[in-house]
Amino acid sequence: MRLTQALDRAVQQRAGHPATIFRGRTRTWAEFGDRVRRAAGGLREIGMTDGDRVAIVAANSDEFAELLFAIAWAGGVAVPLNTRWSARELASALADCRPSVVVLDQTFIPAVEDLLAEVGDRPAVVGIGDGLPADLPSHDALATTGIEAAASERHGDDLALICYTGGTTGSAKGVMLSHRNLVSCSLMWIATLRFDDETRYLHSPGFFHMAGTAPLYALTLAGGTHVIVPKFEPVEVMRTIEAERVTYCLFVPTMLTMLMNHPEFPDRDLSSVRDVEYGASPMPETLLRRIMQDLPGWRLIQGYGLTEATALVTALPRRYHVLDGPLSTKLRTAGRAAVGAEVRIVDPDGREVPRGTVGEIAVRGPVVMLGYWDKPAETAAVLRDGWLHTGDGARMDDEGFVTIVDRLKDMIVSGGENIYSGEVERAIYADPRVAECAVIGVPDERWGEAVHAVVVPQAGHEVTAEEIITHCHAMIAGYKCPRTVDVRSEPLPLSGAGKILKQSLRAPFWAQRDHAVH
């Protein structure tokens, strides 16, 4: 299994058909393949060798899509980084993965020295997109003037992608995904989500997320068309769907709310869309009813997954997205195991529990990661006896439908972004006036969950909620910062072992709900 085989197939069978559409610019699969081969040759020319990491900090574009395949073609390992991270977070990840090449768009080029300050051997720097300095090598130059490279023979369990996910201790972990993982995931997406060569798929999630990269690889294998926007923005998304006759989208429910509440929504023709996958949080019934009423041609499918399982674990197919009748009873579930994934619910010792009993979701199959980059202890903690232990609490019914009821790992999902409480707490504790703090997820109508902090100041000191929030914005990405802060004088509740009882802090917020998380 090699990622390059997907591109070979698309070029062979769909040479004259559109491969990418980006802000009105269309390139065919023949053009896409030519640019990938030349860019791969260019990467080798500037010093990339087999297994080297190539880090990318850029907004989505057709060039970004080419680059991901060019890195695989040249035998490298792609490391797309979250553009919403702070400079401090990006610098830490770059120091961790030790790339030989760093690719930046115009937004990040001015900060290049700060970003590379912690990297040992200085990597080559390449620009991508528009507005680049004249003296900086660019992806476009590599893709047009480079000498074509032969496809790398790296395959199977060879490392192909490192995708960073948050860390419970405050440092992000690099999830290592192989060629086998990514090709298996592509086959899973085609079988489960029904991609084909006529699919015109809108890429609005960032390519630094598996929700962005997984469909890129899968749709290439299917030979469809990638319609790309730099990031999710309601107006550009709606106008792009209308102009390019997009047929397939992936949205977080929060994105759907933003689309449907936008003043332009009633005037936009979104009738070309046939299929919409959503995930990261349950679909509110009010939003579901509205979609069915205002967009009756849209067929909904829910996906649940995680980066460590190459994005997709379970799926709830279209036929269960109904409000009445016997099938409607499955609407609150996360669906059943996707094609190619084996799922079971287990106790703390890894034994499968009886149906209907709450336990931890465990996953096995060719989509499970190789492990965490340079973190053997963390890898061993989640990969046990061939199973990936997800940290999500759930139960399974007699038909295999999984209902997520709790989160065993200390994570918050807000607007589709994973936020680890430990990382936020670490930022808060950097304020010397803070004696104790705990960060929890609380219900939020727009984002699913919102970050809430409970803070106890040091004796003799005062701190306000606004000061804590401002302090966090200087330390971590904005979406990770608390939206609300409770400053209290009494100590936080502790267990017998001295651990903060976050369940007690969360309970009042979730008391009237049948789930402890979104």
UniProtKB/TrEMBL annotation:
Pfam families: AMP-binding, AMP-binding_C
Keyword Oxidoreductase: no
AMP-binding enzyme C-terminal domain: residues covered: 423-499
Record keywords, A-Z: Ligase
Domain AMP-dependent synthetase/ligase: from-to ranges: 8-373
Gene Ontology terms for molecular function: acid-thiol ligase activity
SUPFAM superfamilies in the record: Acetyl-CoA synthetase-like
UniProt signal peptide: none
Family the UniProt entry places it in: Belongs to the ATP-dependent AMP-binding enzyme family.
Entries under NCBIfam families matching the protein: PRK06187.1
Descriptive protein name: Fatty-acid--CoA ligase
Source organism (scientific name): Pseudonocardia halophobica
